[in-house]
Amino acid sequence: MVDLNILFLTQYFPPEVGAPQNRIYEFAKRLKDNGHNISVITAMPNYPIGEIYDGYKGKKLVIEDYNGIHIIRTSIYATKDKSFCKRLRNYFSFTLSSVRSGLKQVHDHIDVLVVESPPLFLGWSGYKIAKKLHCKYVFNVSDLWPESAIKLGVLHNKLLIKMSVWLEEFSYKKADIITGQTRGIVENISSRGFKDKTYLITNGVDLNLFGKDKINREFIKNNGLENKFIVGYAGIHGIAQKLETIIEAANLLKDCKDIMFVFVGDGPEKPMLMNLKEKYGLNNVMFLPVQPKKNMPGIVASFDCALVPLKKLDLFKGALPSKMFETMASNVPIILSVEGEAKELVENAKSGICVEPENAKEISEAVLKLYNNADLREKCGKNGRKCIEENFDREKITKKFENILEQYT
Hints:
Blueprint: E1 5-9, H1 19-33, E2 37-43, E3 61-66, E4 69-74, H2 84-102, E5 112-117, H3 122-133, E6 136-141, H4 147-151, H5 158-174, E7 177-180, H6 183-194, E8 198-200, H7 217-222, E9 229-234, H8 244-252, E10 259-264, H9 270-280, E11 285-288, H10 296-302, E12 305-309, H11 322-329, E13 334-337, H12 341-349, E14 352-354, H13 360-371, H14 374-391, H15 394-408
Parallel strand pairs: 1-2, 1-5, 2-4, 5-6, 6-7, 7-8, 9-10, 9-12, 10-11, 12-13, 13-14
Antiparallel strand pairs: 3-4
Helix pairs in contact: 1-15, 2-3, 3-5, 8-13, 11-14
């Protein structure tokens, strides 16, 4: 394939830590390693703390090199307030600055623009930038918006809903290529008349980074987890995950002294979860801060089993949480409380135990089952790794994306 100049437009990017940041960076890095020239327009890092990181505060524009990738950072309104109006201001600020400031810093010819949604508003930015640069426009959908915001109860205003639906359709129409992360997303978009240009590009894993051999003994020792059965959750502590159910499961198992529930990460629901821990007086729950990306393979490998929860909503039946792939690649069994596509994957792979979403009793029973059965843990771990090797190798997924681009460039 001919080497391309590819520009990414995304609100989220390292040094921020999170699923979108990791996925987009790893994807961009892999494309760079395959010979393409990669640039990124992104926001000043602020997620998930809602505050611009040190070294970027007070700046409206930063041009930098991030591991060989050309980065253009523009201003964003950062806030700790999670109200919908404040979140809209956060989204709109980067939507505008990416066009007003970011576009001016793109001096090379661009062949392909890849836009990451959500936030959906970047669909408009992507259209403006692609039109100005006369390049192909790829709209990547990792979450259906505004549908998800409506069903999560964070979007109520009828006018905003109407405007968002219009913008969603506008983005699909203007894109040359639409990519979706799950079958559910692709089927949803295809059913609206965009089947001919919509493709499945799933999340993936760098198989060299994850594995049980990456286990971090220092992490275990430094946190007093030696001789503990570690039930881990690593990721955003948000509304969608309904993590209070895990606290309730820990409360049911509080007399099992060898079992420790470990939360790694941050998010808007973390203070509530910590308060709930104190309310129940739990000694079997530990909260750890966001960890550097480079530390995560060792931390995930240290788990005896990993929790992957989402709220009980039809919306999530088409979801495939990214932490599933990293857990499975680490030979760690999953306790999955998600219905639909994710459940189908885990059951077919035989890589863990599936339970009803928001059901603390079933989660606690699954934890006990894995705690009491080392052979089951080993089998689930091996099965998960095999599934990832066969279906979710990031190198193979990147090659699939390159083949799609070849049809349009």
